[in-house]
Amino acid sequence: MTGAFVLPGASDTIVAQATVGARSALAIIRLSGPAAHRIGAALLTPWRSTPRVAYLSRLRDPLSGREIDRGIVTVYAAPASYTGEDMIELSLHGGEVGPALAMNALLASGARSALPGELTRRALLNGKLDLLQAEAIADLIEARSRAMYDVALTQLAGHLSTRLSALRNEIIEVEALLAYDVDFPEEDDGPVAASRIEQAARAVLASINALLATANTGEMIRRGAAVVIAGAPNAGKSSLFNALVGTQRAIVTDIPGTTRDALEAMIDIAQWPVRLVDTAGLRMSSDMVERLGIEVAEQHVKDAAIVLVCGDDVDSLSMAIDAVRRLTTAPLIAVGTKRDAYGISAVASAALVALHGATAKIGYVAVSARTGDGLAALAERIVEILERDREPLSSNNPVLTRERHRVALAGARLEVASFLERWEGKNKLPATVAAVHLHSARGYLEELVGVLDVEDVLERVFSSFCVGK
Questions:
Q1: C-alpha–C-alpha distance, residues 26 and 99, integer Å
Q2: pLDDT band per the 50, 70, 90 thresholds, residue 460
Q3: What is the pLDDT of residue 348?
């Protein structure tokens, strides 16, 4: 991190409980700052300043000298700590009273309570990680799926930062080529051909576009792909929802209209997070409460990434497909429910697919929520759709996971495109003027990684952190 920005209170020693403040086996308290070791020496018996050695010690009240707790102490010395400062971690007994007494003792000895995200913010300011890695730590904590967790781990390891650093270097190389045009004005094309500069700038633009193309995947991973179960009342939707989730979440009865509101659950299907939504049956109703549930169902269908259209015979499925298709252009999977009871014959399913061209590439899947038959085939169809136009998730293909990332990359793309327009056009601008766009593009990338000290960006990022991180 460069620049002269200093976090208010950055010279303070801060303390925070990093574990939940409720009944629990352990409570971890972190103390970081210039006075951390002094406070530790005053309150801990015995006190050992050897870094990275865990040992048993007693924590005492600074006023009465009474023992508060016995726990494991680990001492860290700057700069070899999470925050880059002198730091102590206390692993004490959990609960409400003991950790509160411990926090009070540390506060009474000169520490102050840490703000949300302040420990990680200090790590950022002390060069222990960059802004993208700091965001990854928050994403690890907030991850609702294995895919989001894995993407956050990849970002914490620095793969997205490395990709952006390489992109920044590409822009710097184009700026260096332009410098020759400035330094050698007597040459018509300078020592570097104008076409070479254009080619290098276009390569930068292609790299930015490739990274921006991952934004939709990143958004889907953060929120989960909305897979909505729709159909007529009593078509087996809730039974299918329960079978896919693996637990009894929805009330299943033979009475039409049982589901009055949408139920959601986050599940992993292969490597993709899926936000599964069970909705009220699509039908006409004069009942005000039922109508509200139907309107909610229709909105979920409109916003869906995939719709599982349920029915237990050809006619009910055909009618449901027509109703859903009026609401959305999302991919549909026709699901024949109650396969164990009677199912739909191969001939009938083929006729169904032929009748509705919208499902021709997806086909028909028969399932039984009771026995589990067909669920694996249904999951395969869902994965097939989610993987269309998406590269497999890996450290070699980092994705943009936040709107902040997309906005910054879009700004960089606009500046590089503006440079090319002014470099190639009939009214070609001097190199020194056109280069301003490249400088601005580089600025967007530097702000993204956190090379530039932009206070409002830091406030937005760390405002969502929990205390203790």
A1: 9
A2: low
A3: 54
Residue type, 372: G
Closest Cα to residue 468, out of 15, 160, 63? 15
Closest by CA position to 237, among listed 245, 246, 229: 229
What's the token pair of residue 385? Answer: 């759709």
Query: Which amino acid would we find at residue 384?
Result: E
- Sheet containing strand 44-45, edge to edge, reads 44-45, 55-60, 67-76, 87-93, 26-32, 14-17, 112-113
What 3-state class would DSSP assign to 180? helix
DSSP code for 365: E
According to DSSP, the β-strands at 306-311 and 332-336 are: parallel
Question: Is 0.90 topped by the overall pTM?
Answer: no
Distance CA 436, CA 120 (A): 34
Residue 2's pLDDT is what? 41
Which of 99, 211, 79, 197 minimizes the C-alpha distance to 468? 99
The C-alpha atoms of residue 235 and residue 384 are separated, in whole angstroms, by 24
Task: Calculate ∠ Cα 32-33-39, nearest 5°.
Answer: 80
CA separation for the pair 331, 401 (Å, rounded): 24
pLDDT for position 8:
52
Residue pLDDT, tens place only, 254-281? 545 444 567 888 888 888 888 899 887 7
Spatial CA neighbour of 137 closest among 146, 129, 126: 129
Contacts (Cβ under 8 Å, ≥6 apart) of 426:
none
Contact 452, 446 (CB under 8 A): yes
Work out whether the CA dihedral 349, 352, 354, 358 comes out positive or negative.
Answer: negative
Name, in order, each residue with C-beta under 8 angstroms of 104's C-beta and a sequence gap of 6 or more: none
**Two tokens at 117?**
């995200």
Which structure tokens are listed for 290?
């039922």
Please report which helix (H) or strand (E) contains residue 75, including its range.
Answer: strand 67-76
Q: Which of 319, 322, 325 is nearest to 302 (CA)?
A: 325
Peptide bond preceding 185 in cis form (omega within 30 of 0): no
Q: Can you tell me the distance from the alpha carbon of 322 to that of 79, in angstroms, rounded to the nearest whole number?
A: 64
Query: What phi, psi does 392 have (nearest 5°)?
Result: -60, 145
Q: How far apart are CA 212 and CA 401, in angstroms?
A: 11
pLDDT-based confidence at 359, cuts 50/70/90? very low
- Cα 342 to Cα 339: distance, rounded to the nearest angstrom: 6
Q: What is the pLDDT of residues 381-412, one digit of tens each?
A: 999 888 886 766 666 778 898 899 999 999 99
Q: Is 124 helix (H, G, I), strand (E, B) or coil?
A: helix
Length, in residues, of the chain: 469
The helix/strand/coil state of 436 is helix
Mean pLDDT for all residues in the chain: 82
Contacts of 466 (CB under 8 A, 6+ apart): 116, 117, 141
Residues 211 and 203: beta-carbon distance below 8 Å: no
